[in-house]
Structure formats: structure tokens, C-alpha cells
Amino acid sequence: MADLDDTSRCPQANRCDACGTSEQLQPATLDTIVGVFCATLCLPCAESGESPRLSLHAAAMRVLAHCEHLGIDLDEAAELRRRENDRG
């Protein structure tokens, strides 16, 4: 079963998706109203909870891309998210 927080197959950008720095970058996942997507964040943004400012459409497209990285479809991702939320 897939893990929505798995970033092992997600591409890493050259800049932080939140602040634009090119230092201390790491892959991360973000849980949004439209689903979970991957992003590249610098350590300070990741630790402070800073996230990229995206339109609803852009966030939805990022969720779909993350599903592709995981090898699952949107329905499977929604079911995984529901199960994770049910567990606490």
C-alpha cells in the first residue's frame, strides 16, 4: 500500500517552493483541502510550517502529480487519506 508522505520518487526543485531560497532543501508533503502533494522546502520553511502559496487549480494539479509519483490514482489517494484521518 502506498504512503502519501513518501517522497522518494518526487522531483526536488532547485529552490524552496515557499520562500525561493536555494539552501537546505528537502522534499516534503503538504496536506491541503484538495489532497496531499509534494513540494521542495528549505529547512526553515519546513520547520516553521511555511507552505507555497498556490491557487486551488495549481494545488489540485500538484496533488495529481504526487499521485503519479506514488503510482496511484486520485481515488486511491483519497482513500489512503481517509484511512489516515480515521486513525487519528
Describe the structure in your own words.
The chain is of the alpha+beta class. The chain has one domain. The chain is built from 3 helices and 2 strands, in the order E-E-H-H-H. The chain has helices spanning 43-48, 56-70, 74-87, and strands at 25-32, 35-42. Strands 1-2 form a two-stranded antiparallel ribbon. A hairpin with a 2-residue loop joins strand 1 and strand 2 (35-42). The model has no long low-confidence stretch (mean pLDDT 96).
Descriptive labels:
two-stranded antiparallel ribbon; single chain; alpha+beta; 18% strand; 88 residues
Portion of residues in helices?
A: 25-40%
The average pLDDT is 96
SSE succession = EEHHH
Oligomeric nature of the chains: single chain
Task: Produce a short descriptive summary.
This protein is α+β, with helices and mostly antiparallel strands. It has helices spanning 43-48, 56-70, 74-87; strands spanning 25-32, 35-42.
Write the SSE topology.
Layout: E1 25-32, E2 35-42, H1 43-48, H2 56-70, H3 74-87
Antiparallel strand pairs: 1-2
